[in-house]
Design brief:
Distance between the termini: 21 Å
Low-confidence stretches: none
Shape: globular
Radius of gyration: 12 Å
Number of domains: 1
Mean pLDDT: 94
Order of helices and strands: EEEHH
Length: 73
């Protein structure tokens, strides 16, 4: 996430040379692309951490540091 980023609430994901912007509400790709398997893992992680992602989005919009969110185990 980036401070004071544009709506809708989203996060940026990278995998190798691929990069995508993911909508927090729908977990769909807004821009860019990721390989299918990587996208599925990111969507799974996003479902588990949706509330934390939204809280971090709010923090970033207020120019506050976001909290760390655990990766998939």
């Amino acid at each position: 996430m980036f401070f004071n980023d544009h709506a809708p609430p989203h996060f940026h994901a990278r995998y190798g040379e691929f990069e995508a912007t993911i909508d927090i509400g729908t977990l769909e790709v807004l821009e860019g692309q990721l390989p299918g398997r990587a996208l599925k893992l990111i969507q799974e992680w996003g479902m588990i951490h949706k509330e934390e992602l939204l809280q971090d989005w709010r923090l970033c919009r207020e120019n506050a540091a976001p909290a760390r969110i655990e990766p998939l185990s």
